[in-house]
TrEMBL record:
It comes from the Eukaryota. Keywords: Aminopeptidase, Hydrolase, Protease. Belongs to the peptidase M1 family. It comes from Copsychus sechellarum. One of its GO terms (molecular function) is metalloaminopeptidase activity. GO terms for cellular component: cytoplasm; extracellular space; membrane. Residues 2-218 form the ERAP1-like C-terminal domain. This is PSA aminopeptidase. InterPro entries: ERAP1-like_C_dom, Peptidase_M1_aminopeptidases. Pfam families: ERAP1_C. One of its GO terms (biological process) is proteolysis.
């Protein structure tokens, strides 16, 4: 609060955050995550954005390594919540090992080999958006886009729909993403229909006169 008010330097805040690297408490990490998220947003259009992402990776990777990806015998509910928080944060910060493991587990889930546990689905869906940005091949991007619609959480459904109209998705692939949400679940169907109605002007102007507008209506 003092840093935001300009009373002390943000550098002092970052030094305090570094002291929590061995902290096991979920509530503390939630607070750290929230404040780093605000700082990241403030720096997102500056030359320091990559530096703050590197800082996030440094602070969160030790707790991520200790928690691992799989539940441990006797761990509590807060440990499961902490695991999801930490892995999601590391993935969004571009932590290489986290991205690689998320990719592996995401692929196994999609292929039906090993379904993701409920606690890991949210962070991996979020990381899958990160994987989409980093994917070199359009084929890989399309594969990720098609499966994003299978999520069931309302807040993530909205994220995927918003993502569909973003610059990250080619205009010709937007319909596939919206269609994936519409066909993914009952909640997705309702959300996609509302999204199309709310954004009809933009969608119509984008696709008027083409086959994609009829395909959108069909899905």
């Amino acid at each position: 609060a003092q840093a935001r008010a300009g009373i002390i330097s943000t550098v002092e805040v970052l030094k305090v955050m570094e002291a929590f690297v061995n902290e096991p408490n979920y509530t503390v990490w939630t607070d750290l995550s929230c404040n780093l998220g605000i700082l990241g947003t403030l720096l997102s259009h500056t030359d320091f954005y990559e530096d703050i992402q590197a800082f996030v990776r440094d602070v969160f990777s030790p707790i991520g390594e200790r928690l691992g990806w799989d539940p441990k015998p006797g761990e509590g509910h807060l440990d499961a919540l902490l695991r999801g928080l930490v892995l999601g944060k590391l993935g969004k910060a571009g932590h290489k090992a986290t991205l690689e493991e998320a990719r592996r587990r995401f692929k196994e889930h999609v292929e039906g080999k090993q379904l993701l546990s409920a606690d890991l689905r949210s962070p991996i869906w979020v990381v899958s958006l990160q994987l989409h940005k980093q994917a070199d091949m359009q084929e890989e991007k399309n594969r990720i886009e098609r499966v994003l619609g299978t999520i069931g959480q309302p807040e993530l459904i909205q994220k995927v729909l918003t993502f569909a109209l973003s610059e990250e998705v080619r205009p010709q692939d937007t319909v596939s993403v919206i269609g994936g949400v519409a066909g993914g679940s009952k909640q997705g169907r309702k959300a996609a229909w509302k999204f199309v109605r709310d954004n009809w002007e933009e969608l119509y102007n984008r696709y008027q006169g083409g086959f994609l507008i009829s395909r959108l209506i069909k899905v």
